[in-house]
Amino acid sequence: MKKIIGIISADPNSINSEIIAKVWKKKRSFAGLNILIIGNFLLLKKQFTKMGYNFPLHKMNGINKINFKNKLNIFDVPLKFKDPFSVSRVNKVDYIKNSFEIGLDLIDRKKIIGLINCAINKNDFQKKEKFYGITEFLAKKKGIYGKEAMIIYNNSLSVSPVTTHIKLKSVANKISKKKIVYKITSINNFFKKKLKKTAKIGVLGLNPHNDELKNNSEEKKIIIPAIKLLKKRGVLVYGPISPDTAFINYKNKGINVLVGMYHDQVLTPFKAIFKFNAINVTAGLPFVRVSPDHGVGIDIIKKNKANPSSLLDSINFFKSINA
User: Fold this and answer.
1) 53-80 tens-digit pLDDT
2) Which one, of 86, 174, 97, lies nearest residue 129 by Cα?
3) Which residues are CB-contacts of 226 (< 8 A; sequence separation ≥ 6)?
4) Total domain count for the chain?
């Protein structure tokens, strides 16, 4: 039987249904894999219709005897709504959470090999669930909170921030030797066990040019001790690297992962180089979780402008891993 991947349709007020429809039309490009959408059947049906997409759908409440060839299978998740593209914040957050609960149950019962979640408005999710993002939400669910690592993955270079969606003024107080060691260990294990690759990891300093290296700085107190411990454990790790040149010189040392101290320190230069040619992978979980590397696209909803390539890459990622 072909491998089945669960795709959580996630935020209803988004471009998610558009990219799902566009990916389904390209299903031959991920031959050997099957996709199962986890979301509200009626909502998705109405969204597809409004955007002019017409293809066979199948409403599911179980996962046995499924025809994956001709119909897009949707595992139905309850949701109350009037306008399919304007669902209330309270209803949609509960809906997203329930979708993940179903996905995790299918993982636990070994019905699917991994999860892909489409984009979510983090601001809405944070207000209700009090988590920085889905990476942390899933880590808490699986009992590994603090050890998870968000990897923005590309075949040429991947990046990972030690802290994720927090205010810049909080970063210095949120990094620690333990956190850096946990996250880089998770990244190293993911590359080794899932990708069958060797991770060569460059660690950025926190301060500009690492100029504070000789003083009582974060580099001296936290980052360098973490790097030394990781080296003792056999991890191929380099640094601290000056943040302003890290994305220029990484190839010279054969580095394929750059780890920064905060979100935009690594995401901004990465996207300037690779645009959206990447996927978001969570390392440290007992299963593979991937998401497209873009947001909900509020400004282009229903305009047929959404690019499905990151979701397509997320699906095809499962061909290259040991899931």
Assistant:
1) 999 999 987 776 777 888 999 999 999 9
2) 97
3) 177, 180, 181, 184, 203
4) 2
